[in-house]
Design goal:
Strand content: 35-45%
Largest sheet: 4 strands, antiparallel
CATH topology of the largest domain: Outer Surface Protein A, domain 3
Helix content: 10-25%
Number of helices: 2
CATH architecture of the largest domain: Alpha-Beta Complex
Strand order of the largest sheet: 11-12-7-13
Structural class: alpha+beta
CATH superfamily of the largest domain: Ribosomal protein L6
Distance between the termini: 64 Å
Number of strands: 13
CATH class of the largest domain: Alpha Beta
Radius of gyration: 22 Å
Length: 184
């Protein structure tokens, strides 16, 4: 039995869930999400608890069981609390500014980079080097954060770039200077 797939999903009081064969709709205080699910996995709703069941112990069904349960759980958490990814800029002259609904990033290139998040995702700028990506859909929030990080990924020599807050960069030693060479 899947350790994740067999866990029940508790539905908070402010969240409404509608389950149809192959489709789930979740509505809460932050918004509304819906998703089409694989037809093999059955989703049952009873007494404020969602349970996912699979028809067999085949490899495909085991994989889908945990996946479907995680997707539904993320939908319930998203419409109730939302998801946030915190990012920060490290580097001299690296800064972020918000203009309307898009942000402008100065990342050491010859030009500033304008980034407009997709619908359903918001970017909040806390100061010139710290900002956060938030929304109700976990996949979209993670993808937008990854796209922004990919504009200037952290590099291992000086540790400069766009990184998740609290991320540890494995540093490398630079080239050895002239004094480090040994006479042969």
């Amino acid at each position: 039995m899947s350790r994740i797939g067999k866990l029940p999903i508790l539905i908070p009081g402010a969240v409404k869930v509608a389950v149809e064969p192959g489709h789930v709709k979740v509505e809460g205080p932050k918004g509304k999400l819906e998703r089409t699910l694989p037809p093999d996995i059955t989703v049952e709703l009873a007494d404020g608890i969602i349970v996912c069941k699979r028809p067999s112990d085949g490899y495909k069904h085991r994989a889908l069981h945990g996946l479907v349960r995680s997707l539904i759980a993320n939908m319930v958490i998203g419409v109730n609390e939302g998801f946030t990814k915190h990012l920060e800029l490290v580097g001299v002259g690296y800064r972020v500014a918000k203009q309307g609904d898009e942000i402008t990033l100065s990342l050491g290139y010859s030009h500033p980079i304008k980034f407009k998040p997709p619908e359903g995702v918001t970017i909040d700028v806390h100061d010139q080097t710290k900002f956060s990506v938030s929304g109700i859909e976990k996949e979209a929030v993670g993808q937008v954060a990854a796209d922004i990080r990919a504009l200037r990924p952290p590099e291992p020599y000086k540790g400069k770039g766009v990184m998740y807050r609290g991320e540890k960069i494995r540093r490398k030693a630079g080239k050895a200077g002239k004094g480090a060479k040994t006479a042969a």
